[in-house]
């Protein structure tokens, strides 16, 4: 368990800068998840913390000690790799014991620790097997076991579940969450899967092109994205962005135009916008609903039915494709013209530079349904 | 013509070609075996029927001259060359494959082009080197040039092989606290057996058969290796070439190589194709 602190961390590969001055405070026992599109530098940042890449500029502290120049071992970190990276010629036991053996731990101690870890991860019957005789999930558990056994200060996970099939991924996700709770260890986890990010993280770090876009708890990012990038990245399906302009500034919020002539009063502070300004309105598919008197109209282009829910892809009056998520089945057909209810309390408004207007919405986060929120407005 | 006929002819042609290849490659060796059991005027008989009536030639090479010593020399030289060049090549290939430094590509290309030099081109330079080191006419004087001769090949093959090993394995070992030397010894070496056996065996064969250096850098018969000893075998008078003995000696030194290759055959193939397809 340890604090990890990054101060103005830069990384260049040759003349290409891939990490642009990252500041981050990771607290003891916290589960931090780095997310971002591929190539955003999330794995590089993790490798900088691990000590597998040199930091070009800036400072990295683990428990108050500057560790820029220290080897991975001296940093007392453990890492779980995407490809597991088990030593193919060693048995499960030897794989887990290798690090301890190199640290000159006594034979009995190694045996005890490996046995304990194997017990936790249910690997005891497999200790004499070679990695190639194990299934994907078992290999992943061995890789995690190899990390746990050394009792590191910080656990680093580099997309550890992306090589597993969907069912196994859910199971391992739960196991990792359980592990974090039981060990109460500092964990840094890289993934591009936002379900993993949302379910595992204490705090999520959203990265884009080597910069931190926002740091916050999963629901904070969901409800209060600071910019259009975070708003679009967190949440599935993606948030709808509608080109719009400010109609008027009101006490309850900002009135914005919707395609098709209607308007909605978004519950956001009118910070740095004036009437007539071009803005982007963000609204999540799960917050839109079909309603006869809705302020926004469009034509249904594609319907996807999943049984428990359905997605409507609606072409609005400006020609933008808007996604609407509804519960259960729908009786609508392709080509139907529909009106959409846009709850103002759940709208996000972004300035021209893609930064978000602060949302007035601050009731207890996470208990809002569109209907609920809409009634609040009245 | 029916399909069956056509297929039969195709098979026939195939086997005829195989027979040609086999005869061409086996015949010289067969002739050597044949001649090694003949003596006197029998040697000039054109009969191809084996006749194992006399083993005088085999006894002769060990009694009339120090051929046992020559074999021992060859074994010492070839084994040392294998050990030395594998050790240097493994460590060098780790650096060349895993550590990025300025001029790495240039160095690799240089190593590759050096391996293409004809031996004669470096002979005089090597001779100066051997004299300077004071190892002329001694076994180390053969081990050093042979190692130099085999190194480019072994380094190149092992570097290619080492590059194929996943980078994460090395990083996992780093995180586990392994030093570079530990990584090479405990993680990479066990995974490189097929490549080591292949390159080691090829280096052994090269050193075993090497003639030019062995001829140039030795003076007395007791430090000569087998190929030179065979070439310099002389008969009772300077007008007589002891063909029988030369053939017997050739057979004696070829057999160990053939046995080695047969034993490691599977490994060689595995080594040469390793990395081509991920297993």
UniProtKB/TrEMBL annotation, chain A:
Membrane topology: Peripheral membrane protein
CDD domains reported in the protein's UniProt record: ABC_MalK_N
Keyword Glycoprotein (UniProt): no
Cellular component annotations (GO), alphabetically ordered: ATP-binding cassette (ABC) transporter complex, substrate-binding subunit-containing; maltose transport complex
Annotated ABC transporter domain residues: 4-234
Family the UniProt entry places it in: Belongs to the ABC transporter superfamily.
Name of this chain's protein: ABC transporter ATP-binding protein
Species for this entry: Pseudovibrio exalbescens
Taxonomy of the source species: Bacteria, Pseudomonadati, Pseudomonadota, Alphaproteobacteria, Hyphomicrobiales
């Amino acid at each position: 368990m340890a604090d990890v602190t990054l101060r103005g961390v830069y990384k260049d590969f040759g003349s290409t800068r891939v990490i642009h001055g990252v500041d981050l405070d990771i607290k003891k026992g916290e589960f931090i998840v780095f997310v971002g599109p591929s190539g955003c530098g999330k794995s590089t940042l993790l490798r900088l913390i691990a000590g597998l890449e040199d930091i070009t500029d800036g400072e990295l502290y683990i428990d108050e000690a500057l560790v820029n120049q220290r080897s991975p071992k001296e940093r007392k970190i453990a890492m779980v790799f995407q490809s597991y990276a088990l030593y193919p010629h060693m048995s499960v036991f030897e794989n887990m014991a290798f690090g301890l053996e190199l640290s000159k731990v006594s034979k009995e101690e190694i045996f005890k620790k490996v046995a304990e870890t194997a017990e936790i991860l249910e690997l005891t019957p497999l200790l004499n097997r070679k990695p190639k005789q194990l299934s994907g999930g078992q290999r992943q558990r061995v890789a995690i076991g190899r990390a746990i056994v050394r009792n590191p200060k910080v656990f680093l996970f580099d997309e550890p579940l992306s090589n597993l099939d969907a069912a196994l991924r859910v199971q391992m996700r739960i196991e990792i969450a359980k592990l974090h709770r039981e060990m109460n260890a500092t964990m840094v986890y890289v993934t591009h899967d936002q379900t993993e990010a949302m379910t595992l993280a204490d705090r999520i770090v959203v990265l884009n092109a080597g910069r931190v876009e926002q740091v916050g708890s999963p629901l904070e990012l969901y409800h209060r994205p600071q910019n259009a990038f975070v708003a679009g990245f967190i949440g599935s399906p993606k948030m709808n962005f509608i080109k719009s302009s400010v109609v008027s500034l009101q006490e309850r919020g900002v009135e914005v135009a919707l395609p098709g002539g209607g308007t909605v009063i978004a519950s956001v502070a009118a910070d740095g916008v004036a009437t007539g300004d071009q803005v982007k309105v963000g609204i999540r598919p799960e917050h839109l609903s079909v309603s006869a008197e809705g302020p926004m109209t469009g034509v249904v282009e594609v319907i996807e039915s999943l049984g428990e829910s359905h997605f409507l892809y609606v072409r609005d009056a400006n020609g933008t494709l808007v996604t609407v998520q509804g519960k259960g089945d729908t009786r609508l057909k392709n080509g139907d013209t529909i009106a959409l209810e846009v709850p103002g309390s759940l709208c996000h408004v972004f300035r021209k530079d893609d930064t978000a207007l602060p949302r007035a919405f601050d009731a207890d986060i996470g208990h809002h349904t569109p209907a609920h929120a809409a009634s609040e407005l009245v | 013509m029916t399909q069956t006929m056509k297929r039969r002819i195709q098979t026939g042609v195939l086997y005829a070609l195989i027979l040609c290849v086999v005869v061409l490659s086996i015949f010289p060796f067969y002739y050597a075996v044949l001649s090694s059991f003949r003596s006197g005027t029998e040697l000039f008989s054109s009969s191809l029927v084996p006749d194992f009536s006399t083993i005088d030639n085999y006894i002769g090479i060990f009694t009339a001259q120090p051929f046992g010593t020559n074999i021992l020399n060859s074994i010492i030289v070839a084994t040392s060359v294998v050990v030395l060049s594998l050790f240097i090549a493994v460590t060098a290939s780790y650096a060349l494959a895993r550590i990025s430094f300025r001029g790495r590509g240039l160095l690799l290309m240089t190593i590759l082009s050096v391996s293409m030099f004809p031996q004669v081109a470096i002979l005089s330079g090597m001779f100066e080197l051997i004299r300077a080191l004071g190892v002329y006419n001694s076994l180390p004087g053969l081990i050093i040039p042979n190692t130099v001769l085999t190194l480019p090949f072994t380094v190149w093959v092992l570097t290619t092989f080492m590059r194929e090993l996943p980078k994460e394995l090395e990083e996992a070992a780093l995180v586990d606290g392994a030093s570079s030397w530990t990584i090479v010894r405990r993680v990479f070496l066990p995974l490189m057996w097929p490549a080591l056996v292949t390159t080691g065996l090829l280096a052994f064969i090269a050193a075993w058969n090497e003639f030019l250096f062995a001829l140039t850098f030795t003076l007395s018969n007791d430090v000569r290796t087998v190929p030179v000893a065979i070439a310099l075998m002389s008969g009772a008078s300077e007008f007589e070439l002891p063909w029988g003995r030369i053939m017997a000696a050739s057979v004696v030194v070829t057999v160990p190589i053939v046995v080695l290759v047969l034993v490691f055959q599977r490994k060689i193939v595995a080594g040469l194709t390793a990395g081509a397809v991920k297993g």
